[in-house]
Amino acid sequence: MKTYLVTGGAGFIGSNFVIYMLNKYNDVRIINIDSLTYAGNLENLKSVENNPNYEFIQVDICDKDAVNAIFEKNDIDYVVNFAAESHVDRSIENPEIFVQTNVLGTLTLLCAAKKAWSVGDDVYKDGVKYLQVSTDEVYGSLGPDGYFLETTPLDPHSPYSSSKASADLVVKAYFDTYKFPMNITRCSNNYGPFQFPEKLIPLMINNALSHKDLPIYGDGMQIRDWLFVEDHCKAIDMVIRDGKLGEVYNVGGHNERPNVKIVETIIDYIENNVDDSVGSHLIKYVEDRKGHDRRYGIAPDKIKKDLGWYPETTFEVGIQKTIKWYLDNRDWMQNVTSGEYQKYYEKMYSKK
Ligand code: NAD
Ligand code: DAU
Question: Of 3.40.50.720, 3.20.20.80, 3.40.190.10, 1.10.3720.10, which CATH number belongs to 2-192+228-251+295-313?
Fold first, then answer.
């Protein structure tokens, strides 16, 4: 039985990954460490909390002693590092915590894993691996043509993406310097259940259902490349199992859409299926995000060719599943939008 140390498993993608793995395999053990910031929510993990192969421990990945103690007490085979501050708008307001968690937290995990896994000078226990969950945002912004390849130079623009790019470089340095067994995945925008409603898709669903303005930044023609979260989980699982050590793998499903089209899709679904008083009159064009990247587009050819990964959920199916999930889980939305979110939302959108 392999033991996975998953960090940030109470967040959006991390919780989907924990559920995906425990549903797919009977012979994996998952230890989920998460500091439970505003974005971490143990409600996401209700369906697996009593699974004997699952354990949650509240730990900050920047806490060296606590992280070392986890490695001392457990025979960890794989680390999957999801833990991060993940929201670009928050990074523009408050960059420090992004460098703290995303860069120094990553370094803390690398140090602890290297110490626990070393069996000689730059020699590690058989089969262990560290996977850094990174993002396409490290590549910067594209013009109308071309795609991000694994070889595209890093050119991040926001404090968030620069902290993720910095972390990637530290992980790579561990491979180059110490032959530390690692992979990096760089995925495009995810959507699906349990995404915190500061992000475009759940924010628009939540606002439409409550007849609030749907705030589109700038001209709304920025392009993101959307992937259903389970397809990202599948890619991470495959990279941990079969990824060649030291390699970076891009993950994306060639599903580029301008933001305004995403918002129109959500409006159409809700107007036709839930509430016919919802409509495009709710759209409000607001001040643009500072340093807003214009277009992301991932070339996933390497992971497809080398590991046989492919996305299983089309956007048309995935977006319907996602909207239905939020409709069926209004209590979840109610819980996460009370408290801190309320203050965040007012501060963020009252000035726009
Ligand atoms: P999220 O904000 O929903 O979840 C982040 C989780 O990390 C939360 O549970 C939070 O409590 C935890 N966390 C934050 N700081 C921590 C710390 N110091 N110690 C321990 N736990 C901490 O984020 P997400 O959207 O699920 O993203 C997960 C990872 O995937 C991030 O590394 C992000 O950069 C990357 N990623 C996200 C997307 C996307 O579209 N959301 C796409 C590609 C890559
Ligand atoms: O590309 C991967 C990245 O995708 C991840 O690394 C990040 O963690 C994740 O947050 C996401 O970043 P984005 O900035 O692309 O996601 P966000 O949902 O914040 O915004 C998507 C697009 O929608 C972006 O162009 C900004 C725009 N937007 C967003 C919000 C919240 C709006 O127009 N209005 C909004 O209210």
Answer: 3.40.50.720
Q: Give residue 213 CA to ligand 2 midpoint distance, Å.
A: 17
Give the residue, by CA position, lying nearest to ligand 2 atom 2: 189
For 224-280, what is each residue's pLDDT tens digit? Answer: 999 999 999 999 999 999 999 999 999 999 999 999 999 999 999 999 999 999 999
Cα–Cα distance for residue pair 150/255, rounded to 1 Å: 18
H/E element, 213: none
Measured in Å, residue 257 CA sits from the centre of ligand 2 at: 12
What does the DSSP 8-state code read for residue 185?
E
C-alpha distances out from residue 332 to 43, 72, 270, 329, Å: 8, 36, 18, 5
Closest approach atom of ligand 2 to CA 84: 8
- pLDDT for the residue numbered 352: 72
In the chain, where are the structural domains located? 2-192+228-251+295-313
d(CA 134, CA 323): 26
Catalytic residue among 136, 198, 237, 293: 136
Residue of the CA atom closest to atom 44 of ligand 1: 135
Atom of ligand 1 nearest to the CA of 14: 26
301 is catalytic: no
CA 293 remoteness from chain centre: 18
Low-confidence ranges of the chain (pLDDT < 50): none
CA 224 / ligand 2 centre spacing (Å): 8
Condensed to tens digits (0 to 9), the pLDDT of residues 336-345 reads 999 899 999 9
pTM greater than 0.70: yes
Among residues 60, 85, 137, 168, which one is catalytic? 137
- For 71-104, the pLDDT digits (tens) are 999 999 999 999 999 999 999 999 999 999 999 9
The closest alpha carbon to 300, from 253, 347, 260, belongs to: 253
